[in-house]
Amino acid sequence: MAVKVLILEDNPVARSFLCRVVRESFSDTILITEAGDLENARRHISLTGGAQGLHGVDPFKLILVDLELPDGNGMELLAELGHYPATKIVTTLYSDDDHLFPALQCGADGYLLKEDRFEVLVEELQKIVRGQPPLSPAIARRLLTHFRHGTGSDSHAPDSGFAPASGFTTSKPVPIEKPLDHERLTPRESEVLTYLSKGFTIKEIAGLMGIKWFTVNDHIKSIYKKLNVSSRAEAAVLASKQGLV
Amino acid sequence: MAALPHPPDAAGERGDGDSEFPTSTFGRPPVRRGRRSRWSGWRRHTLVLVALLGCVGILAFARWIAATPFVDIRCSGQGDGSLVLEGSTLPALQALRGRSVVAIGGNVGPPMPVDALLLHRSPRWQVDDAARARQLAQQEGLATRLAAGTLQLHFADGPVLTLAAAPRGWAGLGWLFWPLAGLALLLLLAAAVVLLARRRPLDLLYALMALCQAGNLLFIALETTRGLGLPAAALAPEMLVRLALDGCTGAAAVTAFARHPTRLPRAGWAAAAAWAAVIVCLALAWTGVLSPLWWWAQGLCLALGSAALAVIARSYRREPNPYAMVLRRFATATLATLLLVTAAVALAAQRGDVEPGAVAAAPVAWALFLASLLLLAPFLGRSRPLLREFALLAGIGTVATSLALLSVAAFSPSALNTLALASFIALALYVGARRWLLNHVVGRSVISTERTFELLYRAAREVQAQPARLSALQARLLRELFEPLEIFSVDRVPARARVVGGGSALVVPVPRADEDPTPPHALVLRYAQHGQRLFTADDARLVARVVDQMRRAVAYDQAVERGRHEERLRIAQDLHDDIGARLLTLMYQAPTPEIEDYIRHTLLDLKTLTRGLAASEHRLSHAAVEWKADLTQRLAAAQAELLWTFQCDIDMRLSVVQWSALTRVLRELVSNALYHGHATRVEVQFSLERGELLLRVADDGNGSKPQAWSHGLGLGGVRKRAKLLGGEVQWLENVPCGIVCELRITGFADRS
């Protein structure tokens, strides 16, 4: 059975490029649906069981979403697809964290930069589908601040070396919905996040912590899961957006 | 001089002999909130009451004098000591003008011989004891005869004229009476104001001095009335009473100077010695042991003055409070003029034939000078130009009359010439020395207007350039403007800048930038001009304006910066969205990989540019980890290894220009290593130590002979950016293979 992929991209040239990337990345039979705007994308998604993906009628396995679209922002669609059982990836030109972080908050599983070389994109796409989300140092810093403020005083989190909330002027610590206990970071996760925020690579972190690199990856995935808890309900998304964006 | 970080409490613990600033004046802010709140209520009522009582007292005094009998004739003394009739409003006397009066008679007793001593008014300034006794006897004889109702004037060659004595009346008080009485009243009020405002035991001493001098002025007022006939009851004890008044003033000055503004060790002993000297002198004078009494009196006054001067000079050496300095100058001026007056009067008395009016003028001028200094002393910080000018005039008057008297005693010119000489000397002194005296005695601003403007302008410019350094810049400006001995901050913030401690300190609230985390505080400047100058109300006003302007400059700058940021954001967004999308399309359709790469680099540069435009500033450590993450990803994609070392001694904030230039230089160098040198390993060293930045990118690629390279767009860009950052870049061959590029920027940390 063919793997269904939805590519939402308004630029036809970029769309065909992304098609090539997707086909190159996977050995399965690929069935690509292309959409140029949000309206078309929503129509295709509702044909496969709607945004909640409840009907289970052969849903898309992979959705690539551009952010800037003629009839709105791709982020809206991501928020709608909170429970849609697909790997959702943002493909965009914006590489700054002001775009990246909200996208991850809205439930994106990965983030691809359209200007990257073909080979790089293929590799990154494969990584994401295997479950290795991107984590830039700036994002790690934000996450640290997020969890620190969200969970009160997380005394286990080692000092990141940066004054909290001093690097970005927009993220004043607004009290958000009181997080549940399981949202707290474990000391190991905090450590990983701290190292990431200081620019260490996963391999280096594994060496520093004396663990295997895939254990570091597990920690990162777990951190993401905790982050995505807030995207279950749209209200919570809004709340955390206010606190973080 | 560095700002001394005194904790606010420490200021109050420097001993209560310190200026009153921390302990009293500034320590009671609720009382000090404003003149209105302070002088309403019981203070105002008491002051009004004191003023009313003073007026009633003066009027009663004037009424008493007005009731004493007199004859309205004008006489003058001759060189041989005889008394000559000069003129009168009485028609009967017109014919006898120019004839000398030898005796006075009346209904009481036999005629009493009189001479020029009858014209000497003040027994206090009568040098010779015998002359004083004769003067008092003649005055008493005159008073008794006037009281009996008639006065007979016996002229030298026989004629006797009988005059009826009449009460003096208000018109007979003379033109000097009311100004002198008014000055005495002012002194009383000043004493009341000082006492009511501060209510300290020390202020009692000031009040005592003021009241003593008010008493002196009343005596002088009494003695300047016109015509013949003074109340004998007031004249008889005049010498002793005025000696007591002067003695008390001097001893009070010694006592006060020993405690204020700095408390001296053994202050009590000095005060006790001064008071003891006064009491012993008075007691001996009372018993009549002291002879010649005038010399003893002058000796006592001069000794007390010298003691006060010594005490205040020592006080200034212990702590260079400008208030002590001004007091020292006052004491010096008083003592010097007193010495001059004493010398002049003594010389004139020795000569014996000097017009009594000329002799009397110098002591009167000196008393006025002392009174004006007393009036000025408590209000130095408030800059009362009128008072200051008056004190200056009185001082100059004293010096001028004394000098005139001295010259009269030396060369004996006529009375008219004396007056002309005194006026001339006074005018010359006033014109020539006024500016100098004002600058040096009261301590006016020494800094020129031009310099002030320069300092203000520079500070304003710097505040606009670096709003975050507002408080530091303000402190620097204040230091340059006033050169205080010390600056420290306190956490009690006044609403506006004001002078405290009688002019020894100035409290200035510090304006804060919006995101300034420091708590509100105020700066206290103490001892302006290295303790050479007092702060005035003008200074406080100037500083208030400065603070205001700086606050405005910061607000303006913030608004401008916000506007600029918004504008940059918009430009960045437009560039990124429009040009970025087009470049992307072009890149996908590129015919060759080279062109594709070229467009990709252009796109990356565009993105760096727009990110730089959008962000306002970057912390170096944050930027470094981004660079590292970026390079790691790119090198991993090219299957090359990255060796990254980074160290910096300060985590400075990079300006947009610095951030964007460094980002592009780094990217360009690594791209060269990867795509031209085909390196498998790139070593990046970044260090910022003592302001010097070193960026070293070494690879193991196949590049060689960098001197022979043609500088295309890439290397040219690196050179251009290095130059933009104020640094140098050079390429060398690496060992064993590859290329090393070194970018070195000295003083990098200062350029942000």
What does this structure look like?
The complex is a heterodimer of chains A (245) and B (752). Chain A is α/β, with parallel strands linked by helices. Chain A is 46% helix and 12% strand. In chain A, strands 2-1-3-6-7 form a five-stranded parallel sheet, with helices on both faces. Chain A has a two-stranded antiparallel ribbon with strand order 4-5. Chain A has two domains: 3-130, Response regulator (Rossmann fold, 3-Layer(aba) Sandwich), CATH 3.40.50; 137-244, no CATH class. Chain B has 752 residues and is α+β, with helices and mostly antiparallel strands. Among the domains of chain B are: 71-167, Pdz3 Domain (Roll); 617-752, 2-Layer Sandwich (Heat Shock Protein 90). Chain B is rod-shaped, with a radius of gyration of 42 Å. The A-B interface holds A 11, 13-14, 16-17, 68, 93-96, 114-117, 119-120, 123, 136-138, 141, 161-162, 166-167, 169, 197-199, 201 and B 576-577, 580-581, 584-585, 587-589, 600, 603-604, 607, 611, 614, 616, 619, 621-622, 624-626, 628-629, 632, 637, 644.
